[in-house]
Amino acid sequence: MREKILAVIEKNSRIDLAQLAALLGEEEAAVANAIADMEKENIICGYHTMINWENTSDEKVVALIEVKVTPQRGVGYDKIAERIYHHSEVSSVYLMSSGTYDFTVIIEGKTLREVAQFVNEELATINSVVSTSTHFILKKYKEHGTVMCEKPEDERMLISL
User: What is this structure's pTM?
Assistant: First the structure.
């Protein structure tokens, strides 16, 4: 039942508990208890709203930063990741399996200058950081399985002769 719950709420975290229980053919109390247990076990880590900021008046710059580090003896990558993800500008940190860089960091700022300043003053100054490569995200087409920019429907009429 847990995996079925997760599959549904991953796509729609706002689904009503009664609807979820009916969809799964389970008792509402059993579903509520399973969700509470998964929250305690840190399987469900949070509930988020996906916003297409391009359709708002709020300006936001998102950057993907590749970070090369030298891991510290005894603590490896975890301590470095912790130093990075504690910054409020950081929305995501991923340890990568191969390639030139060790971490991929996603950050958000109001301007390009703000993002560049964060990379220069906060990220690049961490002792274990060897180098960074910043990529600015120009447009999001799909995020977390959701298409962010639907094509407008063609409203032309079909005329045949």
Answer: 0.76
* Residues 58-96: tens digit of each pLDDT: 888 999 999 999 988 888 899 999 999 999 999 999 999
Delimit the domains of the chain by residue range.
Answer: 2-40, 53-139
CB-count exposure of residue 4 (10 Å: 0-12, 13-18, 19+): middle
Domain covering 53-139 assigned CATH 3.30.70.920 in the classification: yes
